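USER: Fancy drafting a protein?

ASSISTANT:
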Amino acid sequence: MPRPPATAELRRFALVTFVDSTGTSMYLTGAVVFFVKGLGLSPGFVGVGLTMAAAAGLTASLPAGRFADRVGPKRVMTVCYLVQAVLFASFPFMAGRAAFLAVVTCIALATTGVGPAKRVLLSDLAGQGSRVAASAYNRAVLNIGMGLGAAVAAGALAIGSRPAYDALMLGNAASFLVVVGLLRGIRVTWEHRSAVAEPLEKPPRGRTPLLQPRLVAAALSCGALYLSASVLDVGLALQITEKTDVPHWMIAALLLLNTILAVALQVRASRGSESIEGAAKANRRAGVALLGACVLFALTSHRAPLFASVLLVAAILALTAGELLSSAGSWGLSYGMAPAAQQGEYLAAFGIVSQGVQVAGPAMAALVVGVGPVAWIALGVAFCAVGLAAPLVTAGAQEVGV
């Protein structure tokens, strides 16, 4: 585990991340089972409903970012967390498709609204020189919380009763109340930011972030590199089950390896990514690492189980390196290209574009595995091309954040 942040405020913020991620993981791990077995909904309807909710949730990002710029990120986070507490507490008492759609859509809106506000608050607490390192530390803490939440949910799923499923939903609701309590103890100097921190470069008057080509191009490249998450979440399991004779328990072992490496190395991998130039270099290295991972995945097809297992371990090492570097690059670019007075709006716009690319990730991973080694190589070349182009995409961009 990396060294904790130096300030009490950042340590409390990390605790917010831990509690939030633990509760969220409890929900995510058991959600589908709860919806199908607890609420009696069909798997197909649940899948379509969650997809619709996620799409609707993206619409909240930009308004939430603007609101965070105007009233402060802590207030936006508090409201969104309280809304989520009420919504998750309602799950055990819910019945019917209409109620399900309404609740999961509102949850998606509140969840998306937290995103830009949380990043603005972290930036305010850490300052320009430490916000990428602070983001990396919180990513490590998030991974720990996700692992703990999944373990708790596994126990509830093993029990397999309606009260156990309800407990997961109520536990997540309680986690949001705890988070609100922790937020109250964080002292924020946001009110003084606009008076003491002027951006080095003002954004073009009358233009939204989504109409600025360099910002959009940078966000697209970061989103493309982070398609590695779908390779991990979807491609790995499909490759092992469909293209190799490797025992299926290797899926869990390799995911655990990825989590351990992410916790241990994310902060170190983020060093040097505070500036736009450094972040672009991190993305360039990420592209090369992801090319290596895809080549190794391609080589696992129809190999002897032991040899394929060795190749899979090597592929996960390279994939994790790409994931950590591209995360650092994304943080550095998104913060570096956001003007001080409009951080929330710019971070939200950056997130909308990059997350929009990632929507195609699961289908892309399934297609690559289905086509075979040639598709793996093509994907790797695409990753490498995006990474190598990162310095060109950001050429001429100036640091405008606080």
Remarks:
- The radius of gyration is 21 Å.
- Residues 211-393 form a domain with the Growth Hormone; Chain: A; fold (CATH 1.20.1250.20).
- The longest helix spans residues 305-336.
- The chain has two domains: 8-188, 211-393.
